């Protein structure tokens, strides 16, 4: 697969820089391909090797260009990934693997989710699930089935996290998500627990301003992009993270729009959202859908840190009596959105509303959503879509890269985790 992607730049200063980079890339592509970037590739519709060579050269130059400034822009133009030539078939299959509300759950979560119903009584049958090292195995297995895969999150990957992650300012979680190949994430309310500046450090890397470098290795930042179309600087109205990303997959454009919870300021400490304004979710989505449509994007996925819930007797691939704010968002949004990957409510559901797939995958890595989009090579429209929630069971091998990382941080945090901070001498009642 050849994936080339670009984000919207954010902020005036970055805009100018991004424009410069874009122009440079454009000129390179023009000089190499002799015509508008990607045009020959997109329209060739055949396995034209010379086109690919040109394309490849252009991409290499593109990568070199961005490497000059890998950390000075929130946009950090995405790297090009490995690819296979445009297929000759009539359709392109794109797979999207999504999580939400991971909350730094590197170790095994204690929560259990219902796996099914007892045939006779109808009562839920529960099972253990989750654990970053198992989640990574699922992701990698599914990825190996389709090279056109995107791994994404609907936000709250960090914040409200256990000691193993929180003690290191959630750096280990970002490292784990990098290993899992996460590409795009909405900005959840908890991502702003420590404020915008800290989230920018999480994006770009570098040591913590107060606590310095933690752990055994440097912190390179997130390899994935935070996207937030509705978080703007309150004085300039410019987005503080890119609003969207558009990626070419085998000549077809796929757009991802990131959306934060509109009510974030009501639930995050004022210092966390200082200077920021949160815009209406549906209005913002519609604004960017118009923009993406104008760019020729016909496959649009929204990553939104807002959600809903189904009634308590619903299972992980059901959607019984759906309720919650996401329903209004979907209803008020342009039908061009193919998929809403939702979060925040820590619920699980899988539903089709007005032709759009709407999913949530519980929380803490217990569930992974697998969405398949079948896109016409001719019209570039989505002609078939399906989604399934998969419970991350522990009956599979651990993914070694993540298992190693978890072990390392478990060791590092042990002296703190085991420290006795006090003794209770009387009776102690814990609240609910
Ligand atoms: Zn959450």
What labels describe this entry?
2 domains; six-stranded mixed sheet; seven-stranded mixed sheet; 29% helix; binds zinc ion; alpha/beta; single chain; 11 helices; 432 residues; globular; Purple Acid Phosphatase, chain A, domain 2
Give the arrangement of secondary structure elements:
Blueprint: E1 3-7, H1 12-33, H2 39-44, H3 49-67, E2 91-99, E3 112-117, E4 124-128, H4 132-145, E5 149-153, H5 163-166, H6 171-180, E6 182-186, H7 196-204, E7 225-227, E8 231-233, E9 244-249, E10 252-259, H8 264-267, E11 276-278, H9 281-294, E12 299-304, H10 325-331, E13 337-341, E14 348-353, E15 356-361, E16 367-376, E17 382-391, H11 400-417
Parallel strand pairs: 2-5, 5-6, 6-7, 10-12, 12-13, 13-15
Antiparallel strand pairs: 1-9, 2-16, 3-4, 8-11, 9-10, 14-15, 16-17
Helix pairs in contact: 1-3, 6-11
The structure holds zinc ion.
Describe this structure in words.
The chain has 432 residues and is α/β, with parallel strands linked by helices. The protein folds into 2 domains: 1-84, no CATH class; 89-412, Purple Acid Phosphatase, chain A, domain 2, CATH 3.60.21.10. Helix content is 29%, strand content 23%. The chain has 11 helices and 17 strands. It has helices spanning 12-33, 39-44, 49-67, 132-145, 163-166, 171-180, 196-204, 264-267, 281-294, 325-331, 400-417; strands spanning 3-7, 91-99, 112-117, 124-128, 149-153, 182-186, 225-227, 231-233, 244-249, 252-259, 276-278, 299-304, 337-341, 348-353, 356-361, 367-376, 382-391. The strands form 4 sheets. The chain has a 7-stranded mixed sheet, with helices on one face. Strand 3 and strand 4 form a beta hairpin. The radius of gyration is 22 Å and the shape is globular. Bound molecules: zinc ion. Zinc ion binds at residues 101, 103, 156, 190, 344, 346, 363.
């Amino acid at each position: 697969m050849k994936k080339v992607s670009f984000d919207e730049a954010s902020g005036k200063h970055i805009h100018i820089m991004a424009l410069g980079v874009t122009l440079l890339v454009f000129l390179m592509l023009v000089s190499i391909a002799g015509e508008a970037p990607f045009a020959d590739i997109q329209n060739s519709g055949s396995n034209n090797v010379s086109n690919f060579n040109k394309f490849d050269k252009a991409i290499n130059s593109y990568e070199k260009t961005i490497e000059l400034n890998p950390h000075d822009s929130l946009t950090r133009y995405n790297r090009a990934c490995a690819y296979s030539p445009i297929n000759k078939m009539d359709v392109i299959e794109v797979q999207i693997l999504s999580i939400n509300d991971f909350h730094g759950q590197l170790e095994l979560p204690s929560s259990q989710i219902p796996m099914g119903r007892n045939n006779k009584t109808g009562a839920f049958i529960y099972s253990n699930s989750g654990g970053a090292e198992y989640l990574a195995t699922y992701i990698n297995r599914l990825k190996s089935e389709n090279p056109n895969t995107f791994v994404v999150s609907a936000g709250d990957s960090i914040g409200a996290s256990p000691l193993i992650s929180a003690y290191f300012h959630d750096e280990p979680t970002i490292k784990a998500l990098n290993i899992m190949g996460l590409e795009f994430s909405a900005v959840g309310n908890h991502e702003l627990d420590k404020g915008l500046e800290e989230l920018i450090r999480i994006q770009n890397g570098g040591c913590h301003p107060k606590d310095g470098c933690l752990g055994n290795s440097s912190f390179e930042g997130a390899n994935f992009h935070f996207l937030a179309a509705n978080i703007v600087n309150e004085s300039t109205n410019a987005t503080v993270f890119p609003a969207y990303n558009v990626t070419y997959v085998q000549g077809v454009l796929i757009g991802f729009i990131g959306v934060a919870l509109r009510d974030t300021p009501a639930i995050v400490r004022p210092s966390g959202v200082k200077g920021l304004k949160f815009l209406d979710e549906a209005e913002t989505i519609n604004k960017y859908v118009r923009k993406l449509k104008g760019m020729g994007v016909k496959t649009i996925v929204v990553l939104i840190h807002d959600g809903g819930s189904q009634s308590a007797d619903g299972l992980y691939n059901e959607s019984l009596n759906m309720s919650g704010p996401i329903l209004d968002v979907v209803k008020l949004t342009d039908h061009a959105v193919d998929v809403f990957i939702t979060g925040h409510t820590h619920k699980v559901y899988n539903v089709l509303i007005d032709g759009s797939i709407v999913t949530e995958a519980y929380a803490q890595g217990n569930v992974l959503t697998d969405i398949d989009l079948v896109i016409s090579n001719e019209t570039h429209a989505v002609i078939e879509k399906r989604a399934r929630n998969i419970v991350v069971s522990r009956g599979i091998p651990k993914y070694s890269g993540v298992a190693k990382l978890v072990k390392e941080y478990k060791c590092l945090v042990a002296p703190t985790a085991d420290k006795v901070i006090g003794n209770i001498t009387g009776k102690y009642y814990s609240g609910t």
